[in-house]
UniProtKB/TrEMBL annotation:
<keyword id="KW-1133">Transmembrane helix</keyword>
<dbReference type="InterPro" id="IPR031360">
    <property type="entry name" value="TrpP"/>
</dbReference>
<dbReference type="Pfam" id="PF17099">
    <property type="entry name" value="TrpP"/>
</dbReference>
<keyword id="KW-0812">Transmembrane</keyword>
<feature type="transmembrane region" description="Helical">
    <location>
        <begin position="101"/>
        <end position="127"/>
    </location>
</feature>
<feature type="transmembrane region" description="Helical">
    <location>
        <begin position="30"/>
        <end position="46"/>
    </location>
</feature>
<keyword id="KW-0472">Membrane</keyword>
<protein>
    <submittedName>
        <fullName>Tryptophan transporter TrpP</fullName>
    </submittedName>
</protein>
<feature type="transmembrane region" description="Helical">
    <location>
        <begin position="77"/>
        <end position="94"/>
    </location>
</feature>
<feature type="transmembrane region" description="Helical">
    <location>
        <begin position="53"/>
        <end position="71"/>
    </location>
</feature>
<feature type="transmembrane region" description="Helical">
    <location>
        <begin position="133"/>
        <end position="156"/>
    </location>
</feature>
């Protein structure tokens, strides 16, 4: 991983954390997970596993430090780490078959569904969440995935334009 990619990775993780902290819930108390959106952008920009591994761990730690969900620290770390690995493989398989924007759309939508499911399942086992999976999946995770995808489109386009102006190609 070269210096430019390390700098972008740390910058994107920081921006994702900052936006996540200041963003209010959009509808029905659901707030897009910008740390997850920026994790997916990092996975698409950096094509090496080492970056995905480290970004997944750091993103998980950031999510654990800022979670508002009771006892959600460990499930957040597990969720971001596993999601980063799963989506790295997904992107690796698709990288030469579709363009980056379509790959980002699929990654954000599917990745948020996977992330939410992993968080919910690990929370059920580790933290003792006593909530029905399917009701929570369809009432919280699916709307969060839609919100993440919409916000992700906006953030991806803004980042692509700003990086293009600074002669950094993604």
């Amino acid at each position: 991983m070269n210096t430019k990619k390390m700098l972008l990775t740390s910058l994107f993780l920081s921006i994702g954390l900052l936006i996540n902290q200041i963003m209010p819930p959009l509808f029905l108390g659901i707030k897009p997970d910008t740390t997850l959106i920026f994790l997916f952008i990092i996975l698409i920009i950096n094509k090496d596993y080492k970056s995905a591994f480290l970004a997944g761990i750091i993103s998980g730690i950031f999510a654990a430090l800022t979670t508002t969900f009771p006892l959600g620290q460990i499930p957040n770390i597990i969720d971001k780490f596993l999601t980063a690995n799963i989506m790295f493989l997904f992107i690796y398989i698709l990288k030469n078959k579709i363009n980056k924007f379509t790959c980002f759309l699929l990654t954000t939508t599917l990745g948020t569904l996977i992330s939410g499911s992993i968080f919910l399942i690990s929370g059920m086992f580790l933290a003792g969440f006593n909530i029905p999976f399917f009701i929570t999946f369809f009432s919280i995770i699916v709307p969060s995935s839609i919100a993440n995808t919409i916000l992700g489109i906006l953030l991806y386009r803004v980042l692509k334009l700003s990086l293009k102006k600074s002669n950094i190609i993604i």
